[in-house]
Amino acid sequence: MSVAAVTPEKTLTFEQKLDRLADVAVRVGLGLKEGQELVLTASVDTLPLVRRITAHAYEAGASLVTTLLSDEASTLLRYRHGKDASFDKAAGWLYEGMAAAYASGAARMAVAGANPALLSKEDPEKVGRANRSNSIAYRPALELITKHAINWTIVPAATPDWAKLVFPDLPADQALARLWDAIFAATRVDREDPVAAWKEHDAKLHQRADYLNKKRYHALHFRGPGTDLTVGLADDHLWLGGGTQAHNGQYCIPNLPTEEVFTTPHKDRVNGTVTSTKPLSHQGTLIEKISVRFENGRIVEAHAAAGEAVLQRMIETDAGARMLGEVALVPHSSPISASGVLFWNTLFDENAACHIALGQAYSTCVKNGENMKPEELAAKGANESLIHVDWMIGSGEVSVDGVNADGSHEPLMVKGEFVTA
Amino acid sequence: MSVAAVTPEKTLTFEQKLDRLADVAVRVGLGLKEGQELVLTASVDTLPLVRRITAHAYEAGASLVTTLLSDEASTLLRYRHGKDASFDKAAGWLYEGMAAAYASGAARMAVAGANPALLSKEDPEKVGRANRSNSIAYRPALELITKHAINWTIVPAATPDWAKLVFPDLPADQALARLWDAIFAATRVDREDPVAAWKEHDAKLHQRADYLNKKRYHALHFRGPGTDLTVGLADDHLWLGGGTQAHNGQYCIPNLPTEEVFTTPHKDRVNGTVTSTKPLSHQGTLIEKISVRFENGRIVEAHAAAGEAVLQRMIETDAGARMLGEVALVPHSSPISASGVLFWNTLFDENAACHIALGQAYSTCVKNGENMKPEELAAKGANESLIHVDWMIGSGEVSVDGVNADGSHEPLMVKGEFVTA
Ligand SMILES: [Zn+2]
Ligand SMILES: [Zn+2]
Ligand SMILES: [Zn+2]
Ligand SMILES: [Zn+2]
């Protein structure tokens, strides 16, 4: 028999874990520089974490922390009371302001805790128009982020509505506590030394990306229930994973948690059928059991058991919205996947399974891509779109082959696990 | 004998009064135009009113309501954890964004409910630097507002910290309820027909301004305990009061409540001593029993029983900070004054007593002033500064004479009440 040892992390109070999450977010996720300005976005439901992050950012030498707080109840009021003509308007002045802040050196942190089902009952046509207007207005700011001009990160915070969706059978307070525990585990702040744990994990993701970059596969072949999909990889594609050195010199880990390695597919060389393995929460609406067929890169048929109208609108956003901009590999044994919890939140669910994204490709996933013009990137196979929507196609039943230029296959993942790397 | 009639307004629930306040704010205060964008600022403590305003704005046809929510706890964290070098930074990108929104047609509403004593215990030197940086960054946006390029308004909301300061002897919930009642009374939403009540009140303020505009006094002479002050009026000064037609065509009442008529003093023709009759809350700090002496327009001596350091820093902001930019007349019998409550909030206290403001003059209070260059305005006597700080000099013991160009005096207010008008 054995007596259970009380490990230090078990004795941490909720407040201490919250404070550790803020510390990890600022130091490990964001890599805030002394004297740097910080632009933080968060919902009012996440204020306790926002305040901890603010304190840690100022301690790390932030010159100013500006938090743009959103209120989901106010968001809903637009759908309840807004005139039909209003749904094509976006706060361009605010997004341009954010872009100006980044251009002048500010860092960017987002606290993610939205209710994944906020807009599920609203008119998909209005939701689609509002999303499209926002995407267009947000584009200049987003480009500075995706090109890693600045250091940025996204960290999760549990909120009551999100917790209720994840743990529908638990009382509200228990659901919230369970979701916080899952967040503390996924962000490694319940480890004895979270910073050291992140260092080790980050090294492992880089090692995996390096392996794939040496392999230089021409395509990946996904096989599983409802899935037989070949995803060509862009010419000069680069696999990335873990942290990145931003162009302002700061090292950041853009997503907390992160378990993926990812690259840019070739937009014209995607063929076959694929079925989603987890439901997708897309800007407040839920899309379940997606099943699509690709021909020469384009979706030619798309279905979903729930939210099909939202899916259809999404892929009609623009020409690139029905083509792939990302493919990512995540072992089925990843800690988030092993938790068995469905988070209805891309930050978690995309780090629990292999996934693909419709829409915009990351120029950083093409060699020297950040310095290329749109035409040059397109020539390499990188897709362009207003949207970038990740959805999950991996599971313990899905295997992946690496396909060489000569057509030969080699097993890369078998039943959800990497064969080597 | 008589039986007290139950008037309809007595039967209104708190929720109904809150909803009426939002309705009055949008329709009477702001005069929102169908299809117009709205930029709203508020503290997170005022979310219940913010949501009502949002609903009423969308019902009135707002194309988009964007609320910039502030969190006072986060503001304090800067003073607790920020490095010394950080206090000269302002979110210029955000203020520029707001200016861009106004320039492109957005309306502006501020919900005022700040804790008047938030920064009272912080280092006045840091508070002063932070305020100065903000004033500089905010200037372009503020100019569009003060010139009435757009329709705008400020409405109050009770918050726990503010209520505690106003009613220190009451339990927290009673203090909050009392402050809400005072707000509902001052904003006339407890009347049977608030919109009609505002129409009548607005007409009265315009009538009073018209009377003074016909009089064309050369100066005003204030006399009372600790006060013997002559305030020269600017050449071609204009008295304003109540609502204004903004240049975008919308009629708005910029302050709810408002009881004042006000104009531009001549910056070089202010002489004598003046003592404040109510304490002043200035950006989170409290200044009490101000006593200053003017010579040829400039403060040459300044004291305060509390907050003197903040006062000194304030008047050292720039050359115009020790000169007057506004003089305003309010009868002592005004409903806010009659309530006997000290609000520690300029929106209320300046509407309970005659007041003067140090700093920037309103170009709208000079004939054709909005079309004049800074030099032309200065030649008329209009002051220029980064600050505009109102403080109260009127009471039931203060009388005001109108002084004609020939030096003759005529009584305008006696013991706080208008003789005619
Ligand atoms: Zn991904
Ligand atoms: Zn993605
Ligand atoms: Zn005034
Ligand atoms: Zn004023």
TrEMBL record, chains A, B:
GO terms for molecular function: aminopeptidase activity; metal ion binding; metallopeptidase activity. InterPro entries: M29_Exopeptidase (IPR052170), M29_N-terminal (IPR035097), Peptidase_M29 (IPR000787). It is an enzyme of class 3 (hydrolase). Its EC number is 3.4.11.-. One of its GO terms (biological process) is proteolysis. Its cofactor is Mg(2+); Zn(2+); Co(2+). Keywords: Aminopeptidase, Hydrolase, Metal-binding, Metalloprotease, Protease. The keyword Protease applies. Belongs to the peptidase M29 family. This is Peptidase, M29 (Aminopeptidase T) family.
